[in-house]
Amino acid sequence: MTLGRIFALLAGAFVVMLLVVMLRTETTRENRKLAQLDREEQELLTRIQAVRVELARWRSPTLIQDELRKLRRAALGLPEGPTTRPAREGSKSSKKPRR
């Protein structure tokens, strides 16, 4: 084998290796972009789900009424607690039965 052929073979091998490195670099770059897009997609899906849950909550009349009660209590300065009144001390349930 002559010296010229050896240099041509080495140059060809170098070019092939350089192309492989360039292709792997491009593949890595594209994979990184895809991973970023996947993360953004997951974030958006999570936000959409949160909005759907919020919308479903607001569509339920009982939840809206509970929310309004809480807001009224806060506006009046009342502590948050059960929305029912406590039983009076002299209510029928606490009296002894008559004979």
Summarize the structure.
With 99 residues, the chain is mostly helical. It has one domain.
Tell me the span between the first and last alpha carbons. Answer: 127 Å
Structural class estimated from helices and strands: mainly alpha
Question: Could you tell me the mean pLDDT?
Answer: 83
Q: What summary fits the major beta sheet?
A: none
Strand content: under 5%
DSSP helical segment count: 2
Radius of gyration: 37 Å
Shape: rod-shaped
SSE pattern: HH
Helix content: over 70%
Number of strands: 0
Extract low-pLDDT stretches: none
Number of domains: 1
Folded structure, characterized:
With 99 residues, this protein is mostly helical. The protein has one domain. It is built from two helices and no strands. The protein has helices at 3-59, 61-76. The longest helix is centred in the N-terminal third of the chain and has 57 residues, at 3-59.
Main features:
mainly alpha
Layout of secondary structure:
Blueprint: H1 3-59, H2 61-76
